[in-house]
């Protein structure tokens, strides 16, 4: 099974969200339907970046590494470099 780290963007909020999942399409639908607390204030989330991993642990580790940077510039660099 593959797991994925993803970055979604809301134009309405001008905000990025970083997460990991095993079912990317379902997870994005959940974000846009208001199921997730952090992303429930918008319903225009679009996928702007993703990476695949062979285990949940690797995906979670990568998610945490991206979040630890606490940098919008880093996220935008990541999207433009690999997107």
Detailed description of the structure:
With 83 residues, the protein is α+β, with helices and mostly antiparallel strands. It has 3 helices and 3 strands, in the order ββαβαα. A 3-stranded antiparallel β-sheet has the order 2-1-3, with helices on both faces. Helices cover 42% and strands 28% of the residues. The protein has helices at 24-33, 56-69, 72-82; strands at residues 3-10, 15-21, 46-53. The mean pLDDT is 94. It has one domain: 3-Layer(aba) Sandwich (GIY-YIG endonuclease). A hairpin with a 4-residue loop joins strand 1 (3-10) and strand 2 (15-21).
Sum up the structure in keywords:
3 helices; GIY-YIG endonuclease; globular; three-stranded antiparallel β-sheet; 3 strands; 83 residues; alpha+beta
Report helical residue fraction.
40-55%
Cα Rg: 12 Å
Arrangement of strands in the largest sheet: 2-1-3
The level-1 CATH class: Alpha Beta
Work out the helix count.
Answer: 3
H/E series, N to C?
EEHEHH
Topology:
Blueprint: E1 3-10, E2 15-21, H1 24-33, E3 46-53, H2 56-69, H3 72-82
Antiparallel strand pairs: 1-2, 1-3
Short description:
With 83 residues, the chain is an alpha+beta fold.
